């Protein structure tokens, strides 16, 4: 294979003013009509957002455009030419690239190796690595990406890993770039950088961006045009100029949505979760390095931080998944070891990786709703015999209460859309009536109506005495839901801020170590002005 010529930032003459035209796309799955006669036009040089509730059919539509799923019927037209895609390779050949929510990178390979994987330039029968490396370095420079072509991908922060994913598509000459919830794991600064590239370089050079997002303020900020899908149908396409989060939310959900969490000040009681000087070993250094804090019954303590700063390991230690090297964790005054004992102490856990830890993807909805409780009352009798009618009713009731769609007790968990899968986990964990809830990214990928519901369920449980530890990469969520906010940086608590005084800028600075020393910084190391510059900013979500 010769080296792809990928000067996607130099303008080309397009055949048609429209990059992508979808005509009557329908996709039928056994239980649902995921896309129902959808038509949509995306113009060259524009950023086009695709919004809609969980399960509305956004990812399905984009997978069809990317050739990873065939439509049941309908037509795709790229730059004026009707196309049929049998695989992503066909779509890539027509200049379409897609960046998925779950990165598809090989952690042990370098940036260059990942970028060229499957499209390696060859010299005779061997890979011309030197030429590839030179090309990747040129592209990194051209796009202004802050990336080392020789860095091992597994050691990079998520923001840079995402750039590798984008680079992969640009290296292959993508002129239409699809991104599925690209900012879910980024810091505010990384998000700004990404948007600047997409809008001011990539789209400005005449390419097209389609991006799926549940974050409406971002949608309004970056896009030129917004299409909204509901229940598989196209509700409408509007210009971003003049739209508001309220109008968009209403178009998506079909009713008015409260965008701010309604909660009264917390009324903290006794200590429920006590973490003292906890150290958890990481691969090279301590992942959690002497962390201490308490969460009381009746309060929500949020942990903000860039992913990879020890939050995951801290959660795994608290939930009994990882051993604690030193220090102590107590639950309602008692210590516990391992997942079972921790659970028995009244701890529920919403895990950050729903596919790996939260669900058994090929098991049914009803079975997933009782994971961890399948051997005991109320779901099993004394001899371990399953009470199938109770299990079935439990699934029906929870799916109804948490609006998990489609309503099915037998659907394998792997067939739910991302947000509905998340609602299933939240429903299961809240049903247990925990005393302590460890919620990692509880609304990642969840739509605005469901976020409203999950947040109000958590607040209601807090008011009844639940102690909540919230870990979220979504700063808006941390600021909206928490009563107190701790910031984690390089395995340590870099500071604490009352939620009422927090702003995105201030937290963002602390999260990247710029707000204070890298060590066990005190809140005073971040200037109050940085933490609470604009109240308005804190209320953006
Ligand atoms: N492989 C599949 N088999 C069966 N049903 C599926 C499959 N993939 C998606 N669906 C269903 O199609 C519908 C649309 O799902 P899709 O993932 O496109 O929604 P979405 O709008 O991207 O949602 P989210 O915001 O939650 O990611 C959902 O009801 C989902 O359960």
From TrEMBL:
Domain of life: Bacteria
Region (Disordered): 514-541
Keywords carried by this UniProt record: ATP-binding, Nucleotide-binding
Skewed-composition ranges (Polar residues): 531-541
Family annotation (SMART domains): AAA
Annotated Low complexity bias: 519-530
Coiled coil: none
Pfam family, one: ABC_tran
GO MF annotation terms: ATP binding
Ribonucleoprotein listed as a keyword: no
Keyword Nucleotide-binding applies: yes
ABC transporter domain residues: 20-256, 273-515
InterPro entries, sorted: AAA+_ATPase (IPR003593), ABC_carbohydrate_import_ATPase (IPR050107), ABC_transporter-like_ATP-bd (IPR003439), ABC_transporter-like_CS (IPR017871), P-loop_NTPase (IPR027417)
PROSITE patterns: ABC_TRANSPORTER_1, ABC_TRANSPORTER_2
PANTHER family given in the database record: CARBOHYDRATE TRANSPORT ATP-BINDING PROTEIN MG119-RELATED (PTHR43790), GUANOSINE IMPORT ATP-BINDING PROTEIN NUPO (PTHR43790:SF4)
Name under which the protein is recorded: Xylose import ATP-binding protein XylG
């Amino acid at each position: 294979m010769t080296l792809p010529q990928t000067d996607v930032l130099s303008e080309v003459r397009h055949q048609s003013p429209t990059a992508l035209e979808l005509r009557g796309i329908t996709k039928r799955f056994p239980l649902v009509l995921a896309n129902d006669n959808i038509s949509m036009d995306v113009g060259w040089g524009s950023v086009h957002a695709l919004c809609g509730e969980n399960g509305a059919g956004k990812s399905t539509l984009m997978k069809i455009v990317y050739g990873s799923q065939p439509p049941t019927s309908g037509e795709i037209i790229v730059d004026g030419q009707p196309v049929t895609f049998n695989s992503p390779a066909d779509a890539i050949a027509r200049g379409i690239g897609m960046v998925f929510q779950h990165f598809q990178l090989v952690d042990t390979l370098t940036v260059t190796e990942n970028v060229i994987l499957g499209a390696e330039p060859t010299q005779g029968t061997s890979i011309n690595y030197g030429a590839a490396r030179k090309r990747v370095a040129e592209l990194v420079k051209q796009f202004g990406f802050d990336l080392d072509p020789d860095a091992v991908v597994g050691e990079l922060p998520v923001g840079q890993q995402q750039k590798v994913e984008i680079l992969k598509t640009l290296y292959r000459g993508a002129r239409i770039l699809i991104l599925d919830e690209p900012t879910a794991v980024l810091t505010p600064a990384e998000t700004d950088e990404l948007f600047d590239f997409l809008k001011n370089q990539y789209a400005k050079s005449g390419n097209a961006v389609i991006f799926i997002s549940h974050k409406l303020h971002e949608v309004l900020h970056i896009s030129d045009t917004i299409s909204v899908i509901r229940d598989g149908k196209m509700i409408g396409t509007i210009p971003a100029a003049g739209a508001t989060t309220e109008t968009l939310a209403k178009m998506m959900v079909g009713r008015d949505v409260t965008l701010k969490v309604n909660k009264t000040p917390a009324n903290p009681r006794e200590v429920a979760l006590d973490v003292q000087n906890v150290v958890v070993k990481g691969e090279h250094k301590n992942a959690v390095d002497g962390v201490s804090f308490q969460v009381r019954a009746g309060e929500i303590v949020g942990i903000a931080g860039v992913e990879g700063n020890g939050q995951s390991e801290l959660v795994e230690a608290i939930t009994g998944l990882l051993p604690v090297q030193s220090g102590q964790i107590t639950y309602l005054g008692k210590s516990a070891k391992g997942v079972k004992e921790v659970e028995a102490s009244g701890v529920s856990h919403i895990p950050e990786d729903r596919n790996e830890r939260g669900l058994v993807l090929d098991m049914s909805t009803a079975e997933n709703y009782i994971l961890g409780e399948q051997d005991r009352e109320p779901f099993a009798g004394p001899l371990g015999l399953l009470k199938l009618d109770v299990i079935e009713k439990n699934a029906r009731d929870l799916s109804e209460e948490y609006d998990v769609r489609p309503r099915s007790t037998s659907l394998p968990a792997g067939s739910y859309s991302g947000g509905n899968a998340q609602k299933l986990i939240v429903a299961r964990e809240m049903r247990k009536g925990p005393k302590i809830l460890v919620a990692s990214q509880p609304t990642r990928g969840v739509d605005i109506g469901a976020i409203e519901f999950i947040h109000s369920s958590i607040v209601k449980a807090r008011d009844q005495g639940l102690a909540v530890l919230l870990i979220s990469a979504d700063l808006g969520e941390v600021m909206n839901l928490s009563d107190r906010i701790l910031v984690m940086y390089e395995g340590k608590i870099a500071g604490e801020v009352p939620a009422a005084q927090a702003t995105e800028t201030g937290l963002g600075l602390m999260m990247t170590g710029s707000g204070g020393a890298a060590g066990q910084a005190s809140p005073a190391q971040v200037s109050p002005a940085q933490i609470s510059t604009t109240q308005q900013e804190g209320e953006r979500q």
